Amino acid sequence: MAHVPDLDVFRYHNGPFEPKNWAVPLRAVGWLEHPQSFTTGNVTSSVISKLKGMVEQTRLAYSQYTFRGGKSCSFCLFAGLSDPGPIWSQENIFVPGTGVVYVAPGGIVHYVEAHSYLPPREFVEAVLRCPDCRSNEYRTALCVANGGIKPPMETHEEFSLRFHEQAAAAILARERRKG
Q: Which of 3, 27, 77, 156 is buried deepest, with most CB atoms within 10 A?
């Protein structure tokens, strides 16, 4: 994972991670890496619970947008603490804000719980307002946050259907060329 300062325009990968694919700013939150400093403070248990739920919901509904491999916490490793194991930074949550979409790694939960990371206020407010990431309400909230334009993301179900349709079409085309 790379360090990206909070609220900077997020440029990390293609597809939904590419700012040009959004009508509104795509802002990074929680992309932490040692030795970069970050804001600390208290986060309520309701925010932590909501973030945990969003990571799990995203894992189920948008699994095609995860990155390969687990990530250990560079802050824990540098401090000589036991490795907490994978901190789920390969999963990423997209949080609809007001005229902005935030993207955070799943590891944000670990950073908040273990290192007292305090995300920006506007991100926390958006998290608390965010519908279940598996729901139509979430897709609508992303669309509204994106200026009324459909977000550049497919659910895992939509992705799988498109993938299977394309595979079937390719097989049919290959058989026609043979025959």
A: 27
Question: How confident is the model over 114-138, as pLDDT tens digits?
Answer: 999 999 999 999 999 999 999 999 9
Q: List CB contacts of 97: < 8 A, sequence separation 6 or more.
A: 27, 122, 123, 126, 145
Kindly list the domain boundaries of the chain, sorted by start residue: 15-178
Report the candidate in 26, 43, 24 with the shortest Cα–Cα distance to residue 92: 26
